[in-house]
Structure formats: C-alpha cells, structure tokens
Amino acid sequence: MIDYTLHILDNGLTLICHREPETPLVTVNILYGVGSRDEDPTLTGFAHLFEHLMFGGTKAVPDYDSAVSMLGGEANAVTNTDYTNYYLTVPARHIEAALQLEADRMRGLNLSTETLSVQQRVVTEEYNQRYMNQPYGDVWMLLRPLCYKVHPYRWCTIGADIRHVQRASIEDVQLFFERHYHPSNAIISIAGNIDPIEAARLVEHHFGTIKDGGAPCRAKHIDTEPDKTESQQMTVERNVPTDALYRAYLMCDRHADAFAACDLISDILSNGDSSRLKQRLIRKERLFTDIDASILGCLDRGLFILSGHPSDGVSMETAEKAIDHELQQLTADGVTEGEIDKVINKFEATFHMSHYRVADRAHELCLCQWLGDIARINTEPQYYRQVTEDRIQATAQKLFTPSNANTLHYLAK
Fold first, then answer.
1. Which helix (H) or strand (E) holds 244?
2. Fewest CB within 10 angstroms: 108, 168, 278, 310, which?
3. 237 strand-pairing partners
C-alpha cells in the first residue's frame, strides 16, 4: 500500500506527497498536461522541443545540469502523446534546493535565439538518428497517419514535419510555454525521505507565488477518432535486414471499461513463451522469427498493435493469414479461465515491481492523479480481476473487425 497526501495550492498546482523513510533520497516529479496531442497541426513537435528547452537554463540558473550535479542528483524527462514528465532525484537534505530549481523553471526559461537554435539542432539530429537513419525507425511515422485521420495522434512526438521545429520562432515557443507550463496544468509529487508537512510548506513557499496561466489546456476540445469503415494498407521498402509486418487496430481510450480487457488480450497473445502467437506461429508453424502484441494506452483512443518478422521464405500474405486465423479463433472460441488467471498474475507481479523505486512511485502518483483517480496507485489490479472470459471475447469481437485493420508491410530492399 502506497500512502500519500494530496493538496491543491491556490494557484491550481496539485501537490502529492509520499513518505518513504527507508531511503536517503527524495524525488521531485512534475507532470505537465501537455503532449503532442495538444499541438497545433502547423506547429508540431513543440512538446518534445520543450523537453529539451527546459534543460537550457533560466536567468537565475543558466546551467541546470551543473546545478543538479552540484546537489549529487540526477534529472531527466520524457514526452509522449499525452503529457510531459520531469523528475529530479537528490539526497533528501537537498530537497529545498531541488524545489527551487523546479519552481525557477516553471516561472520562466531563458529563451533566446541562441538557446532555441541549439535545441533545434539537437532535435533535428535526434530526428535523423532515431527516425531516418535507424532500421525500422520511421515505422510510427508511417503507421500513425495510417490509423488516425482526424486526431492529433496521427503524428509522432518528434512532429509531423521536422521543419515545424526548425522554423519555430521565439514568439512561437514563448506562447507555447505560457499556454502549457503553468501551475494548474501541472502535478508535482514528492516521494522519499521527507515529512509531508515540511514538503507542503516548501512547495507552498517556492511555487505558491507563481501566477497561474488559466484553466488547464486539457479542457480544449479535440476531435475523437471515429470508428473505421474500411481497412487501410501501406507497403514500403527500406534498407533493413528482414521484412516486418505491422497490424494496428483502433481501440478504446484509457478510461474505458474495455481497456483492461485489451491489455489482457495482448498478454494472452504474446506475453511469454507459452502465449498463443509464440507457441503456434513461432514454435509450431515457424512462420515468424518473432512476434508481439501490445497496446498504446493513450488518454484518447489508442492502438492495439501486432508486429513481427516473418521467417525467410514466408510471404506477407501467408504471415497475415496466420495472424488472422489466430484472431478469428480468439473471437470465435474465446479464452480459458486459466489463460486469464495467468496473465492477471503476471500483470499484478509487474504492477508491484514497478513501484519498487521511489522515483517510480513519484511518477505513478502523478500519472494516476492526472488520469483522474489517484487511488489507482493501489487499486489498479482490482480492475483487471473483474475482467471475465465473456468480456475478453466481446472486446476481441469488436476490436478485430476487418474494417478496423491497418496494415503496414515493411519490406527489405
């Protein structure tokens, strides 16, 4: 059981505290409710760009990384489609200095033509290395617009067009910061060896005077991706070692009742050597050298992904038919109670292991609060235990319809 306290400051900042006296460390985690889904279609990649700009320093602290090193700490960040998360872990005695650093960044960055130009080059280089010059690197740049036609999930966090970042002006980035990086659009959690009352006092002192920029930007309307009426397919050739097959199905959003069922279906299909796809398509029929099923657990409608590399000599048509056969068997015959118990037990073990580090707890507390139910930090497995064989089958029948299939054939030249 993870204990926590919850408090909202007058300026809208949400504060969560979790005390763990057994560690000498403390983690400050700040989640900002801004991801690539919140970008203007003509100015994409900005959420990720700001992940870099936030480490560029402020007028008070020109070199953020050096300041963190002086505290004996470590800091990092991650951007995804739905939010941007920053964390800073330091020895507990340096908690106030850590909070000063984060409050200073929330107040404003040292945005200049020079600092912006540096990070534009960094992001461009990342784009070239990770997406253009890496085997299978552009898969998601192809698959997302194949699956999404109206929702901002149709572009990657790096952006729909790298030129959006390259051409960004100081005015563009300043406006983006003011719109998204303010107290009521942020959740801060402090986890580690610190008294919650003292933590609240320090946060109130350092963050309480920051003016809010208005209501959380998440309140704005974003078009829901409609159900698919016909399947989509794309074929590309690239300099890669072997062919790859990707199949994506539009699924429910993170809050839907069917979300846990989709997650468990992916585990039944490919989690472990005894899973259905690995037993039949790799071990028995030897049609694939590897195959995997996974989900994108997005705030809005996500994707159920099947991906794999067909064995030498196996055509894409044969590989697709084999996958279709397995999905048809699942939708027609359902699953057994034993299969569900096995994957739920694995989920629970992974769930509890994911809370082992204090830094992980700090992030999960922010995430659960952002999703609207902080209690899920302790109760998430209960939702999975409620999934029945009938729910699995009904979810699969709705999910794996031919018109909902989006397929990418990624062929080796």
1. strand 244-250
2. 108
3. 411
State CA 143 to chain mean position distance: 17
Distance CA 265, CA 328 (A): 13
On the question of pLDDT at 284 being above 60, the answer is yes
Q: Which token pair is 62?
A: 């020109």
CB atoms within 10 A of CB 410: 24
3-state secondary structure of 321: helix
State the pTM of this model.
0.95
Residue with tokens 């986890």: 191
pLDDT at 220 over 90: no
From 262, 269, 346, select the one nearest 304 (Cα to Cα).
Answer: 262
Contact call for residues 16 and 5 (beta carbons, < 8 A): yes
Task: Identify the burial level of 355 via C-beta atoms within 10 angstroms of its C-beta, where 0-12 means exposed, 13-18 middle and 19 or more buried.
Answer: middle
Pick the closest to residue 158 from 55, 49, 57 (CA basis): 49
- Using an 8 Å Cβ cutoff, are 254 and 370 in contact? no
Can you give the pLDDT at residue 223? 82
Q: pLDDT band for position 219 (50/70/90)? A: very low
| Core vs surface per residue 143-173: b (16+ CB within 10 A) or e | bbbbbbeebbbbbbbbbbebebbeebeeebb
